[in-house]
Amino acid sequence: KNQVEQSPQSLIILEGKNCTLQCNYTVSPFSNLRWYKQDTGRGPVSLTIMTFSENTKSNGRYTATLDADTKQSSLHITASQLSDSASYICVVKGSGGYQKVTFGTGTKLQVIP
Amino acid sequence: DADVTQTPRNRITKTGKRIMLECSQTKGHDRMYWYRQDPGLGLRLIYYSFDVKDINKGEISDGYSVSRQAQAKFSLSLESAIPNQTALYFCATSDSSGLTGELFFGEGSRLTVL
Q1: Mutate to test the interface with B, among A103, A107, A108 (most CBs of B within 10 A)
Q2: pLDDT tens digits along A58-88
């Protein structure tokens, strides 16, 4: 069964600090991996996409990494801001049709002053 | 205005009542989806539609039905609501021309069944 596991479930950090969120998956065959940000009471919004051949991709203060061999991804947030408080969801798409999209349960990040 | 609009945003109803959640989009996408989000669980697919004449069940379709009235409109119905259907529901769209499958979500509809 395809699974996407995220850790930690929740995280509290001080404003200005860095943090790293983890995503492990078993989806195979693999097509791509996205990180979504979901603000409280809002729908998820895509932050970045990683394909098989990509190791690192940045989007402002967000940097995603992918190790397709170990089936692991991370999302690193640099110099956190209060607006980074949200849930971050890892979503893995397999090959072979839309049915192969699997969502992680998310990491809830709280940035405090 | 939001690209993907869901109505109502919040609804409280009683067991056995019929409920309809509506979704409309201005992104021009042909693919539309309904998801359910529960605490501690990942988003789960209820139904999806790749065009007006194409409706498909997702992983948790029991107790739900959908209607694709137009390319831009996709509604979700609960014929006889039950308490375990209390959840946050999201409509999403994607463009079939893209290979990466980015989903664009609405703001969500919070449903409480008493």
Answers
A1: A103
A2: 999 999 999 999 999 999 999 999 999 999 9
